[in-house]
Records
---
Amino acid sequence: MRSITTLDLQYAHRFYGFKGEAQYLHGHTGILTIEVEDSVNEGVNMVFPCNEIRKTAWDVLQNFDHALILREDDPLLPAVLEVYEKQGIRHGAPQNTMTGPAFKTELATAYPECRLVVTKETLTVEGMIKIVYDLLKDKLNIAKITFTSGVNAASADFSTRHEIERCPLCGIALQNGICPKCGYRKV
Ligand SMILES: [Zn+2]
Ligand SMILES: [Zn+2]
């Protein structure tokens, strides 16, 4: 069975070099749906607590929220950085508090200190799904990701790969046989 969670991300981007309106900088509220598949954990009668899926996902994905997402070869990138630098906000600002840990994968690099994500490929809805799966695949048994942004939507199915031992009392993943939330110990 599956547990499903949804979160939204507000971001600005453009399709650099694309022959259409999307070559201009613009913004979206994107809606991301993550489906986690596993057996039903009999102790709590759920696959996985949805708020815990959300927490795990949000930890890294908050770097995309209220962020500017640009492809690595987009000339807007050095131009924006120059402005941020001159303004003194390139390396952080007291108001920039909603930051996740910086990350770097094959597909994307997050610079949370200035709310910027630099991508290898154009950030289409398909591109977003590839990036999100790559960031979360080792943490969650992801069976499907759907991303909707304006009139565009895409989804992808994945085969789940992990044996994740879950707490029979609160449902979250055990770490070395111990529940980090309620202290349950597997005997
Ligand atoms: Zn767009
Ligand atoms: Zn627990």
---
Amino acid sequence: MPDVSTIRAALACACPVCTRHGEVHSQVPRTVLGAPVTVDAEMAPLLDALAAAGVVTVGSCVNLSEATARLWPAKLPALTAGVQPAVNYRRTLVEGLAFVRLLDTEAAAPFPSAVERLGGEVLRSGPLAQVAFPRWQMSALVAQL
Ligand SMILES: [Zn+2]
Ligand SMILES: [Zn+2]
């Protein structure tokens, strides 16, 4: 697992999609590794179920396409075109999916598997995994955790 300060730095993103996220998706407070964060209210049941299973999540959004279009539209082309890093937002943005980025630990393994069974996307690189799935599958995923 990467050290806690590295994860906290990743949580403190200063981009407009992160800092003004509440203008698009209503937020609720949570704690990740002792640090206060806000998360999309609609994601909270899933994130809480993951946290209860020992999974550390480092980013999520119920519809990043919508948030980016509203808060940082100039960034959209770079996120969907050309060569992308292994863990990227291309399909999330193009298909309007919900996503969760998490530490790819043993505790986390059942969640990407559940997303894959439902036809969602699982991307991995180093310590990170990212899953993306249609918003309407949220409760089915919570039920599988
Ligand atoms: Zn950001
Ligand atoms: Zn969001």
